[in-house]
């Protein structure tokens, strides 16, 4: 079980709700994933922009914890404004800080992310910042009092998976709060790998919503996160350069 | 469901039975894996060498299909002799051809593997040869009439995982019989990856028997194979160099 | 030719001077490398600590540009103090900002690096900050007016090479000042790869000083940087999944 | 210096002569590479098919050793016929055996390659077979008496570089004749890497002929092979998980 702030989650998979072909597909994918935490961009909600459709109209949200993000913010101030709007609409007490510093990579701005994190902690939010895999930055964010840290595996929506397992390992080894690997997951093996490295959870969206069959992929991700977590707990074998027989036959009777 | 020769298997995970700390651990790991196919070295059996303990003494084998292998053979003739011994003991009609050509890497000998395969097919066995990931060799073996092909991910027991996904992809793309990725799997992500590439199944042993907690790892592998298969069927997203917002906010109202 | 601030360098290889077995080995390795820029930790100099040996006693420095670094600093203030000491000793007008935020990985502290960079630019230094491969951080540093940016390939002294070629590519694509890949280079292929990605230069130390034969490795790195630069300028072929005959024989007369 | 059969070569780079934009570009690229060995498909020569242009019409071949290959052969018999035609035209006493077993990957057929190798050795040729990176197959070929073994880095013309450095390492470690890594090289780092693993030479073609600027790439490859060889001889540093300061400052006087 995963604890973030005062909350406990059965599933270690957080699912984004963007870009599904329809509300019905979204709903079924969410169910198949067995996630307990749904993320969404506040700016995509009709509380923010009433010309937007309600992304949750076909879903009963009562069983889920909502984790809105501040996507679209380029400064700390924008991020805070977006977070407060979500709070005012009773959508959340948790917020994923997402302050983008680069349009091409959608990678986060470290300085504005730190600022926004400080401001939102002051406002009493449960704060989960999305960050690069910069090891020291992850530590600096934790020193501010965040509730979980969310390093990216690779840029949002690229499906490139875990490019730098070393940095993620260092972040995990040094972490004092849960580490949720966020962004870049492309397939089940990536989600499993993040968990095997010792991550506490995985957040993904495009890997499911953009798959040929989002429902099957949602189910795949459920199993992948479970497999990776068990694999981490089970302690994998060391890698070796030379072979090791699984059924050694040395010293046995000759044919 | 996986079909090999006349047999149908619910699980796509084949589990080796070597090197467990005890018969009890082996039994529980097998159960946790939910495998339907158990593999073992004939030369490790007490039919072959009566000073050997019975590796299955604590297990009821009635629910399993047995896939003995010819580990320890360095020539086609030895492999055939081992296979016939297993057959004579009513252990199998299926055989995994394993003719090792290198003591350091335990990589298979292509020439002797082809010879042994031909001879065992002539004898009426259901033949699954263990082979390197040589693309043309896998095809040549299939032209002989084998029932499944078993390319290695990396050398036996190394835990190096899938070193050459290109070759495995080419083998899978060209295959006319099931492809079971065999050897080198180190952790759940590797098993998932093999399945995502389109393999029909995965055979592993040391990854489970050598893990800190073999039972948990057996369960992890069960989920990993399931995740990978579903991921393959679901068709993953393409990899991209640049980011793609999961919740695009372009064209939205300004803050 | 490489331009940084008012200076022009023939070689794109910067060589660190730490950890050589002797002054004589250091001198010969420097010569073999044909570098024009030598880096060193100010705190290792006897201007800083007169119990230290003079690391350059066997060398004539007249042909080199010196690039001292602020290794050992954990805060911006320490870095500035170290830089000023080097300046006062007439050692430099260029400084490599190195503010470490993690003892285990020696990865840089993004916040203190930014602060130190600002302060040293105000003091009139030619500033080259060592940074992680965080894409947006590299941009933020450039907006301050730095003269080159020095993202790490992997942690100092690890020899892990280029772990994240994507981030380096993004940094290079967006850079408005020279990009010198710094830290983690383990072998010639790593130096070549950095240059092939479009880096303007490479800084390395342990790969040479820690090699079995530092002189040969220094020469190897000279060629690797040259190979990588030419390879970048020559524009490599695209990667393909399927083969392309170099000597296509389709449509030719039958045998 | 590299010895193959009775011949000694200054350069460890073998260059293919296919697919250049013109004879003049080919000639200049060959010069820039400083190679001593030129390879070409016999079937592309006008001795074989007089409608073909002479690929060497603009070159003086007196300084080069020619290494024709049997590209286009799908059986051992075809390969032998092609080799004999080249011999009859006084083109060679060395032959690169290339018997393709797959049109999509142009990967070699292990069985036909072995057969052709045996037959050509019987005919007195100096034989260099192109093979996959199958470790045991490379050994079997050597047991026949070949003069060098040529494992592929990845499929011909793909530019995928060295996919499986483990197999190449095992082949090199076990080799009793020179190992020339052949096929798949995409950029200088790949050529350097092959040499760093201990290969005795590298053969490439498309990486140069298909580059934006073939002359520059030919020069890049010359340096890359040199860098990689020196890097191998110099013995690189071990890879480490955690950082190692190149200029350690522990135990030094406090600021």
Automatic annotation (TrEMBL), chains A, B, C, D:
EC number: 2.8.1.10
EC supergroup of this enzyme: transferase
UniProt keywords, alphabetically: Cytoplasm, Schiff base, Thiamine biosynthesis, Transferase
Alphabetized CDD domains for the sequence: ThiG
Secreted keyword on record: no
Residues the entry annotates as binding 1-deoxy-D-xylulose 5-phosphate: 157, 183-184, 205-206
Domain Thiazole synthase ThiG, residue spans: 4-248
Active site residues of this protein: 96 (schiff-base intermediate with dxp)
Residue intervals passing through the bilayer: none
Superkingdom as given in the UniProt entry: Bacteria
Pfam families per the UniProt record, alphabetical: ThiG
GO BP terms, alphabetized: thiamine diphosphate biosynthetic process
InterPro entries assigned: Aldolase_TIM, Thiazole_synthase_ThiG, ThiG
Pathway given in the UniProt record: Cofactor biosynthesis; thiamine diphosphate biosynthesis
GO MF: thiazole synthase activity
Family indicated by similarity: Belongs to the ThiG family.
Function: Catalyzes the rearrangement of 1-deoxy-D-xylulose 5-phosphate (DXP) to produce the thiazole phosphate moiety of thiamine. Sulfur is provided by the thiocarboxylate moiety of the carrier protein ThiS. In vitro, sulfur can be provided by H(2)S.
Subunit annotation: Homotetramer. Forms heterodimers with either ThiH or ThiS.
Protein name according to UniProt: Thiazole synthase
Organism placement in taxonomy: Bacteria, Bacillati, Bacillota, Bacilli, Bacillales
């Amino acid at each position: 079980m995963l604890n973030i702030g005062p909350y406990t989650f059965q599933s270690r998979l957080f699912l984004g709700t963007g870009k599904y072909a329809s509300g019905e597909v979204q709903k079924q994918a969410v169910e198949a994933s067995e996630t307990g935490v749904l993320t969404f961009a506040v700016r995509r909600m009709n509380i923010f922009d009433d010309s937007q459709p309600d992304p949750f109209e076909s879903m009963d949200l009562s069983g889920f914890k909502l984790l809105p993000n501040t996507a679209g913010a380029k400064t700390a101030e924008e991020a805070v404004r977006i977070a407060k709007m979500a709070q005012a609409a009773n959508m959340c007490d948790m917020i994923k800080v997402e302050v983008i510093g680069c349009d091409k990579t959608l990678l986060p701005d470290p300085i504005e992310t730190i600022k926004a994190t400080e401001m939102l902690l002051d406002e009493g939010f449960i704060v989960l910042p999305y960050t690069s895999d910069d090891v020291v930055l992850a530590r600096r964010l934790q020193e501010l009092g965040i509730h979980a840290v969310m390093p990216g595996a690779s840029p949002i929506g690229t499906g490139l998976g875990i490019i730098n397992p070393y940095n993620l390992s260092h972040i995990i080894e040094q972490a004092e709060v849960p580490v949720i690997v966020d962004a870049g997951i492309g397939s089940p093996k990536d989600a499993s790998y993040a968990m095997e490295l010792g991550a506490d959870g995985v957040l993904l969206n495009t890997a499911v919503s953009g798959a040929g069959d989002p429902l099957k992929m949602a189910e795949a991700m459920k199993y992948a996160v479970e497999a990776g977590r068990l694999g981490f707990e089970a302690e994998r074998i060391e890698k070796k350069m030379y072979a090791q027989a699984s059924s050694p036959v040395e010293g046995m009777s000759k044919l």
